[in-house]
């Protein structure tokens, strides 16, 4: 299980306990699905579904990724590939590569802007899963690469988000944010040491940070994302006429 935004695990040193691949953060993954009537009674679930629909219909980050995945032969369907569930208190979302499903933590996502960011982050993992042979569970470098790309391209490290976290910096701050968040993500879902996570991120950082597909740029704002989406659509039209 690959996750979106989460605090690092308290146990950063690798122990003898078997790695559960992050599924402990998503307890509803192992429960029997609830009936529609039961789910409809829960306000969190209804709100999550409404915010998800708003993201998919209006957010340029998500719209670009959905088009790119469709072009790559991995069409995303709302009912099949998204699941609003209750999660551990430190996590907002995750990508379950075993089922190709994005988990949205309905008990932790309270605002539309947060939903936009989580959906984008997890769609980047889904896009990577679609276009490449990612070994999520055994190759920590593969996981590190996708986490770097997700932090870099999803808006996780925009200036406004960093200010909201009371983190300030000038030269190289975006890269620092991307590196730190990628390391935290690995530690949240894998029983590896901090040193192992840092080494994996550092070894692939340059290549993965500069892999800007499908955006073609780092979208530092919604305006940037709209431009990237427009350019992506125009690129598709150009390629179709070749």
Automatic annotation (TrEMBL):
Tell me yes or no: is Hydrolase among this UniProt entry's keywords.
yes
| Gene field | Atp23
Q: Would you say which domain of life the source belongs to?
A: Eukaryota
Q: What is this protein called?
A: Mitochondrial inner membrane protease ATP23
| EC number(s) on file | 3.4.24.-
Keywords, A to Z, come to:
Hydrolase, Metal-binding, Metalloprotease, Protease
**Which family would the database say this protein is a member of?**
Belongs to the peptidase M76 family.
- GO function term, MF aspect, one: metalloendopeptidase activity
Cite the Pfam families for this sequence. Peptidase_M76 (PF09768)
Region: Disordered, residue numbers: 1-24
Give any single GO term for biological process: mitochondrial protein processing
CC terms in the record's Gene Ontology section: mitochondrion
Q: Which organism is it from?
A: Chordeiles acutipennis (Lesser nighthawk)
Question: Is Mitochondrion tagged as a keyword?
Answer: no
């Amino acid at each position: 299980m690959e996750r979106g935004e989460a605090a690092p695990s308290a146990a950063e040193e690798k122990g003898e306990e078997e790695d559960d691949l992050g599924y402990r953060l998503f307890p509803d993954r192992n429960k029997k699905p609830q009936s529609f009537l039961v789910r409809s009674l829960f306000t969190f679930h209804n709100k999550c579904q409404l915010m998800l629909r708003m993201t998919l219909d209006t957010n340029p980050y998500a719209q670009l990724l959905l088009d790119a995945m469709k072009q790559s032969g991995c069409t995303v369907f709302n009912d099949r590939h998204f699941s609003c569930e209750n999660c551990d208190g430190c996590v907002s979302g995750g990508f379950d590569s075993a089922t190709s499903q994005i988990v949205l933590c309905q008990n932790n996502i309270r605002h539309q802007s947060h939903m936009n960011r989580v959906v984008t982050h997890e769609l980047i993992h889904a896009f990577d899963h679609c276009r490449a042979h990612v070994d999520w569970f055994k190759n920590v470098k593969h996981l590190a690469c996708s986490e770097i790309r997700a932090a870099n391209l999803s808006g996780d490290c925009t200036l406004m988000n960093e200010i909201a976290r009371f983190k300030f910096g000038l030269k190289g701050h975006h890269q620092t944010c991307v590196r730190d968040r990628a390391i935290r993500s690995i530690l949240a879902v894998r029983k590896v040491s901090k040193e192992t996570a840092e080494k994996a991120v550092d070894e692939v950082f340059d290549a993965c940070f500069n892999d800007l597909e499908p955006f073609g740029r780092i979208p530092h704002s919604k305006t940037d994302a709209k431009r990237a989406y427009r350019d992506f659509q125009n690129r598709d039209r150009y390629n179709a006429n070749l």
